[in-house]
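#structure-requests
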Amino acid sequence: INIMPRLSSLRITMCPKLKALPDHIHQTTTLKDLTVGWNSDLLQERYSEGIGEDWPKISHIPNVRIWQDGENGARILNKALNLG
């Protein structure tokens, strides 16, 4: 089952109790932009580029921006594939 087959952009913000993105996100082939911000530190850690345990679930998405505004200021992770 492909949920939201035309979804190309997804933004999730201000969900401090969110612990993970949906498991089926790795099956979404049309998603080109994912922004996740002002969420839990756990979410930040799970999806950290290259090192987070759940990074492989979103690594196929061309543009990923995950950020957390906390005591240390804004921490930004960006991934942009060179498609040219």
